[in-house]
Amino acid sequence: MIRTTLMAALLVATTLGTATLGAARAEAQDLRIALREDPDILDPSLSRTYVGRIVYASLCDKLFDINEKLEIVPQLATGYRWEDPQTLAITLREGVRFHDGERMDAEAVRTSLMRHKTIQGSFRRAELASMNAVEVVDPLTVRIRLSAPSSPFMAVLTDRAGMILSPKATEALGRDFGTRPVCAGPFRFVERVAQDRIVVERFPEYWDAGRVHIERVTYRPIPDNTVRLANLQSGAVEFGERMEPDDLPRMQRDRSLRVVPVDSLGWQSIQFNLNNGARARTPLGQDPRVREAFELAIDRAAINQVVFDGVYTITAQPVPPSSPFHIREFQPPPRNVERARALLREAGVTTPLPVELTVANNPDNRQVGEVIQAMAREAGFDVRINAMEFASSLQAATRGEFEAYMIGWSGRTDPDGNIYGFLHSNSPGNDGRYANPEVDRLLNAARVESDVAKRRAIYAQIYDIALRKDRPRIFLWHARNIMAHSARLTGYAPVPDGLIRLQGMRLAER
User: Fold this and answer.
1) What is the domain count for the chain?
2) Residue 155 sits in which domain range?
């Protein structure tokens, strides 16, 4: 990790000075959480950031959730039943209210699910592609009809596609819903100041209010790792998400902190722009041999050791080793600079070949970019790092304003959630616009197949075509979510999806 410069030191001092005053004023049950980035829009249909999902855990309950064992459990629903392989009946919890006082019922569920699928620009569209219709059976029962059997469909309802929004608010606000989100979670939205804070307060009419003990939560985006740790140690914040691996021993020695490392479901990757506007018209975007050369120039194990103290798990695929769908035989290729140079010669490119690598602007990502820059230079690439504010980098990627983009994903329990949205030609998460009809066919087939071994074999075929031949994206590592919080905070239950669920948490007085 890049360590403290004079500017960082000044920033720490300033933050600590203001934080001490803020901490003295804070009430015992006011919780402050430091985020690695500022979330994008707070609209479950339109958002795509992991930190946004952390905020949603306070604002927007889902039909179903997952527990520490990755089991699907009811939340706004009370149960479900497959009437046949393409028809799902869901029963709803009685007496649930949205933050605007409106009742949550089957019609609200129908409205939310259809909005997630149909609103322009929705990132839930691919997740709900198999959903043909949602029918209101009675006020507390909905029936969902699918176009085909779908193995990942229940898992989809444990994330943003399963969040139920107030129909009154969505109708009134339209595409501005994310500026004042109204859901049925344990906290309601108060205010947002971009790049500074998101504030929520306890919702007294929450259906499970007896388990909510925190009165107010302030989420503060603090991208700088050193500053985030300083805020945590000083008491300026009580919770820090995804702390630094090389800070782990230091935090474990601090008696005022509790550290909880959890293997994540997600991945980090570099995606390439193949067909999204003018920035795709480069040798990197148009020739898979150049992308193979780029991958062969990279030593994942060295990056992991230099930047993350070897804590992460290097990978070449989007499914972690803990999953039954992980393909053990599909391993990262060893670094081979000579072969990379030969591939560039075969592709007929003039070296050094300029490549712009976009990274989110935080110390880790910048350091990874610098290590890749040095490695790739030996193979004939001139990597230029473009560090951008995270939400802005996502918007730029959607517009095709990138050549190579280092981007992570927090992960899902079902492998489809880690794969389909990034490799299928019709998915909004496929920013590079990769398209291969055979890969599309296999991705669709994997959604229908329920047998684990057969489904895993389909993913192996997908990897051989997409990740070994076409290379629209190269996967780098699976991270560990290193969560740290004040010893005053109790009740935090770590789940591999990395979300901070506030139910059951308490903050003792100083």
Assistant:
1) 3
2) 64-171
